[in-house]
Amino acid sequence: MTSTNKKVAVVGAGVGGLAVAARLGKKGFNVEVFEKEPRCGGRCHILEDRGFKFDMGPSFVLMPDFFKEVFDYCDEDISDYLNLKNLDVHYKIFFSDGDSLSVYNDCEKTRKEIERFEPGSSKGFDGFLGYTHQIYKTVQPLLYKCFTGKSLANPSLWPVVFKLHPFASYWAVAKKFFKTDKLCYAFTFEAMFMGVSPYQAPGFYSIITYSDHIQKIAHPMGGMYKIPLALEKISKKNKVVFHYNSEVKEIGRDSKGSFIRNNGVNKYYDYIVANGDYVHAQEDLLKRKVPDYKYSCSVYLLYLGLKEKIRGLEHHNLFFSSDLPKNLEQIFNENIVPDEPSFYIHVPTVTDPTLAPDGKEIVYVLIPVANLKNKEEDIDKHKKRLRKLAFDKINKAIGRNIEDLIEVEHEFIPSDFISRYNIKNAATFGLAHNLLQSAFFRPANIDSKIKNLFYAGASTQPGGGLPVVIASSRIVADMICG
Ligand SMILES: Cc1cc2nc3c(=O)[nH]c(=O)nc-3n(C[C@H](O)[C@H](O)[C@H](O)COP(=O)(O)OP(=O)(O)OC[C@H]3O[C@@H](n4cnc5c(N)ncnc54)[C@H](O)[C@@H]3O)c2cc1C
After folding, report:
1. pLDDT tens-digit profile of 305-348?
2. How far does the centroid of ligand 1 lie from the alpha carbon of residue 39, in Å?
3. What is the CATH number of domain 7-45+59-84+222-294+431-480?
4. pTM, rounded to two decimals
5. Residue 88 needs a FRET pair 20 to 30 A away by CA distance; which of 266, 329, 390, 456 works?
6. What are the Cα distances from residue 226, in Å, to 202, 342, 441?
7. 430 alpha carbon to ligand 1 midpoint, in Å?
8. What are the angstrom distances between the C-alpha of 412 and each of 87, 395, 415?
9. Which pLDDT does position 142 carry in this prediction?
10. Mind listing the pLDDT tens digit for each residue in 10-40?
């Protein structure tokens, strides 16, 4: 098929949409991107104020091979666009009893560190990495494939499914190798990055922890926003046209073909790729009913610009609740703002001083809370308490009162995910990653009724998180290129 005369509309300039645009632009398609916001990036957004550059969403670059793949696909060298610096200390976990545990780039140091908590656990660590390595080898190629319920009927896939032990939870995988709850939490907290509880996430998601330890954790110098900017640049180089401040109001098909409705006009394309949230596309753009999906959690975010440098925190920090099971129960089952939440602190200026004015620091606080399914926004009632709780714990870690250091402060509340990015139920990480919404059961990347409509993004296959969303763009590009 010659692609040069084929027209493609991409609805949304999130990382998934940008990666599709870059790929199809490179293949010679005439691609136009429609984005409701004034700039690209979607959840991987930036907020700039008084010289502070806050990355508003993702902060971890995991599975770097998935990032490299999209640059290779477009015949570009990733190092011309992103300066990925490996962190020496991957993250530091602060337990509520005052203990802390650091995970290092150097596995030998991590082994020594975990031995302090549980003698003999370095053997468990090796066992965990061996087990998750096998899972990673099995899952990695599957992440570039789109499955349907029918794929399950294909017997050649059954041994693969069996190898993944689909009924064991993420927590159960850690429990196989570690005795103490502290280490089990340290090896499963990544489930929260997908917006699910480690008790509910299938064990094969432990490939994220594997990737932390084996493929390492990197920071793009200049900030996470360099990632969407790089993909936008490659797209433009390949003649992709961007329409910003340009919300699509409908996707449909009539006698003239498949169209998007934008600025009151139906515009027709050979292919349409919906990158905005999948449930938004179904309900609001295609006017369809969706099943009673489970949604990931939401988050309450604070972005602080400090007038001075602080000590005691690493680039990535996790503060665990004193009662983690209750914390998870309240978010995922009771659907409420937790009493004493675990939270995450990002201090990117530890590695990258260019993100703040000289001698100043960025502190980003992420507190997982329940999503807004069947419920009104209620964060106002809890904000003061959550902020104080986080600040008290930070103050202990840095030995100072953070309140006295704040020069700039912004927040992002759950309902902002709806108003800003059209994300259903403010589910920050999209549809939940439980067993019945993973792999075969997650929405496919091609529409079942409109054959030239495709989906790339966090709530479709293979799932959420930057590397995986980039994989969804590959699936879609491969389908369109035939
Ligand atoms: C706080 C936070 C922390 C995270 N941390 C990490 C992390 O550390 N590492 C990691 O890998 N991932 C992380 N993630 C997840 C990651 O950011 C997402 O999975 C990924 O960015 C989703 O990309 P996407 O392309 O699917 O969708 P989006 O980023 O949501 O992009 C979709 C775009 O479509 C636009 N849009 C929606 N509707 C329309 C419409 N009708 N018309 C036109 N445009 C429309 C939206 O404005 C948006 O720009 C985090 C996410 C958040 C929010």
Report:
1. 999 999 999 999 999 999 999 999 999 999 999 999 999 999 99
2. 13
3. 3.50.50.60
4. 0.96
5. 390
6. 32, 29, 33
7. 9
8. 27, 22, 8
9. 87
10. 999 999 999 999 999 999 999 999 999 999 9
